[in-house]
Design goal:
Elements lengths: L17 E5 L2 E4 L4 E3 L3 H4 L8 H13 L11 H13 L4 E7 L2 H18 L7 E5 L8 H5 L4 H4 L11 E2 L13 H19 L4 E6 L16 H11 L3 E5 L23 E4 L11 E6 H9 L14 H16 L2 H22 L3 E7 L2 E6 L15 H11 L5 E2 L10 E5 L7 H22 L1
Parallel strand pairs: 5-6, 5-7, 7-8, 8-9
Antiparallel strand pairs: 1-2, 2-3, 4-10, 9-10, 11-12, 12-14, 13-14
Helix pairs in contact: 2-10, 3-10, 4-9, 7-8, 11-13, 12-13
Bound molecules: pyridoxal-5'-phosphate.
């Protein structure tokens, strides 16, 4: 085809057409092979071309693909709800199905506001979030996102929410222990709540591990436990945005499981259907749903495709696949191996300031000078150079830059499918090493 009429991420750039995928590999129509080192957008977490999922898709399509949620429930959606309730921590037993992570976080925001209204506390409408966070691209979700680059153009349209600092161990104040740093960062939430007034605040939202805006930044132990205490103390709901971390990615079913913290609302997306269909969810506790049931009885959110049987059947098949192949446990084991290899790279290559991660959600941060941790100016596009060079070399990695302009450096995410073997990790790291060394050479 000579001319494209599709609006691409970068206008004017030509993208190869994908032909097919198998396991951790994708192939373009010219026959070039790529290691999917980031599961696309940290999404294709069970790998490509899985027969069982294709079969579940076909089976459901032959029964019924679409029935509107105001008319019918379905076996697929009921089983998916039950499965998620059995996986989720605490009293998070209820799922509201949507189609993207942005919709899931925005629905969580709405449910939080509605909950307080139905409790007779209608002034509690604002959210607290963190800099260097990403909760989605729609206006409500972007209002809660502290991703400087993605907000910039739309600031006048965004809700005015208080924002606190992220826990960012690599760039913590000199001489501060991780333990001190955990409470130092969490206590900022208490300060923000007191400044704004608990009567104004509906919820605090955070990613368990900072993804798209920081590159797999893992908080110090104790941080989320303290956050939970503060939220309880001031009647502020805690929303865990597990769109990137959920469904096994970090080596536990959900990121919060690492710290035994039980959120009031939890969002899922990406790995929930592993890219086989658009599917996401907002999960809520019994307490929240009981309150709304006793009140108006109607959650004021939803989309045409919410809870459609086709996507539910696909997502259910994905969760069954994750269970049957022990992919949560596998993510922990393979993730530890990948992180070790990445840390070896970081020791060897001056351009890499830090290698970090949890489970199979890993990241590299690039710096101008390792000792001072000085970042490159974003205008230099160092992470983008790595991503482009990796692509040339047949390796896909994910950008995680721009979350904290002026402070944070350039980062990338490495998050292959949870099915990756040890030999495949070796192959991935070899290509990554070659790529980063090439970029380092180009930067001289
Ligand atoms: N929340 C988190 C933590 C994410 O990482 C993302 C996407 O990267 C979103 C929400 C938004 O999800 P989506 O792109 O599916 O709208």
């Amino acid at each position: 085809m000579e001319r494209s009429y599709v609006i691409k991420p970068e206008l004017g750039k030509t993208y190869p057409q994908v032909s097919h995928g198998k396991g951790i590999y994708l192939y373009d129509v010219a026959g070039k092979r790529y290691i999917d080192g980031c599961s696309g957008a940290v999404t294709a977490s069970i790998g490509h071309g899985i027969e069982e999922i294709a079969e579940a898709m076909r089976e459901q399509a032959l029964k019924v693909s679409f029935a509107y949620r105001s008319h019918f429930s379905s076996e697929a959606v009921e089983e998916l709800g039950a499965k998620l309730a059995s996986w989720a921590p605490g009293e998070l037993n209820w799922s509201f199905f949507v189609n993207s992570g942005s919709e899931a976080t925005e629905t969580a925001q709405k449910i939080a506001i509605q909950y307080w209204q139905e409790k007779g506390r209608p002034t509690k409408t604002r959210m607290v979030s963190r800099w260097m966070s990403y909760h989605g691209i729609t206006m409500g979700a972007l209002s809660m996102s502290g991703h400087v680059l993605r907000r910039k153009r739309f600031v006048p349209l965004l809700a005015d929410y208080p924002t606190i600092s992220p826990p960012y161990p690599y760039r913590r104040p000199d001489g501060m222990s991780l333990e001190q740093y955990a409470s130092h960062c969490a206590n900022e939430l208490e300060t923000a709540i007191l400044r704004v007034g608990p009567d104004q605040l509906a919820a605090f939202i955070a990613e368990p591990v900072i993804g798209a805006s920081g590159g797999a930044v893992v908080p110090p132990d104790g941080y989320f436990q303290r956050i939970r205490e503060i939220c309880d103390k001031y009647d502020v709901l805690f929303i865990a945005d597990e769109v990137m971390t959920g469904v096994g990615r970090t080596g536990e079913k959900f990121g919060m499981d690492h710290w035994g913290v039980k959120p009031d609302l939890m969002t899922l997306g990406k790995g929930m259907s592993a890219g086989y269909t658009p599917m996401a969810a907002t999960m809520a506790t019994d307490a929240i749903i009981d309150t709304i049931t006793r009140g108006s009885g109607l959650i004021m959110a939803g989309h045409t495709y919410s809870a459609n049987p086709q996507s539910a059947a696909v997502s259910l098949a994905v969760l069954r696949y994750v269970e049957a192949h022990h992919l949560v446990e596998r993510a922990a084991v393979q993730g530890a191996y990948l992180l070790k290899k990445l840390q070896e790279l970081a020791e060897e290559i001056p351009l890499i300031g830090e290698a970090r991660g949890l489970g199979l959600l890993c990241g590299l941060e690039f710096v101008k000078e390792k000792k001072t941790r000085e970042p490159f100016p974003l205008s230099k596009g160092v992470a983008n150079q790595v991503i482009a060079k990796a692509f040339e070399n047949g390796l896909l990695v994910y950008p995680a830059t721009g979350g904290l302009e002026g402070i944070a450096g350039d980062s990338i995410i490495i998050s292959p499918p949870l099915t990756i073997t040890t030999e495949e990790i070796d192959e991935l790291v070899e290509l990554l090493k070659k790529t980063v060394m090439q970029v380092q050479e180009d930067l001289r």
